[in-house]
Amino acid sequence: MRLIGREEIENIALGASFFGAGGGGNPYVGKMMAIAAVEKFGPVKLVSTDEIEEEDLFISVAGMGAPTVLAEKIPNGNEYRHAFEKISQYIGKQFTGVFPIEAGGVNSMIPLVVAAQLGIPLVDCDTMGRAFPELQMTTLHLGGINISPLVITDEKGNISVTETVTDKWAETILRAETTEMGGQAAVALYPCTGANLKQWGVHGIVSQCEVVGQMIEQASGSKEDPYEALLRETDGFHLFQGKIVDVIRTTKNGFNFGTIQIDGLDQNKGSRCEIDFQNENKIAKVDDRLSAVTPDLIILVDTETLVPVTTENLKYGKRVRVLATKANPLWRTKKGIETTGPRYFGYDMDFKPVEDLQKEEV
């Protein structure tokens, strides 16, 4: 167990935006909410999965909706606690702590806010090891852990409890509610036991986000090549370097959809990289050759600062490096690929691990 305060939050938010793979929302909003919470209520206890009891109950609290909407529809900060309290009241049991649903700039921070407000611990695990756009895209789902009952609420105080026959139905119903709530809402979901998190959680992700965030923060003063150090730390692969020349973006059905076109610079001069995204980056091609594909992580970082570039912050002329890292092994199973692989998102191709794709390019 250790305490999470302002400095740790700064690093966790930055690292989580890296593992968000372009999604998860702008880390600034979530970071400021978490900092305000710990300054008001005190630091948060971060506990490992080894430190929790198997029979204790835990739940995730998160934001749902299109990340671009969050820039204008700022949470009031109490929605997530209300969702937590409502689900506890509904099932008639107390939760020991909370955990992030994903590693994303906003959703890595929201459980910290609730943990500070209620004085409960945050578990050092999530259920993706990255960010994904739909509620059922979790390692708990892969383990057969039921997503419901779950709660959705907004900043106005509208709140509902939902029980569904499948996790996919939860996604369908709550996505419609989120759209009606203005494109952003707060949810409490996946009530589970400590035993469930021990078996199906992505362990140590909060700490890993902190390490990566600290590396990025200190990149300018590093004695070694900070980009190469980042690739080593995350077992990553460099895909491309260039300048963003076009961003085609639309928001529909509660998601951000789009395509990024990047013209090559330096060693990639004369080439073009194209990336498709749905909240998160889904597929990367260089000169029409597949370089990486979901569920592996495709990440854009600023060429100079290495600060991750989320999909809502894409701008013409920005110089970026594109890299990829391996998804958690659970996502590379048959059920994992069925749930988050390219065919689920409408691409007529099979999943290929990024390390194999990079060998093909050599």
UniProtKB/TrEMBL annotation:
It comes from Secundilactobacillus kimchicus JCM 15530. It comes from the Bacteria. Residues 166-354 form the S-Me-THD-like C-terminal domain. SUPFAM superfamilies: CV3147-like (SSF160991). Signal peptide: none annotated. Residues 8-163 form the S-Me-THD N-terminal domain. InterPro entries: S-Me-THD-like_C, S-Me-THD_C_sf, S-Me-THD_N, S-Me-THD_N_sf. This is DUF917 domain-containing protein.
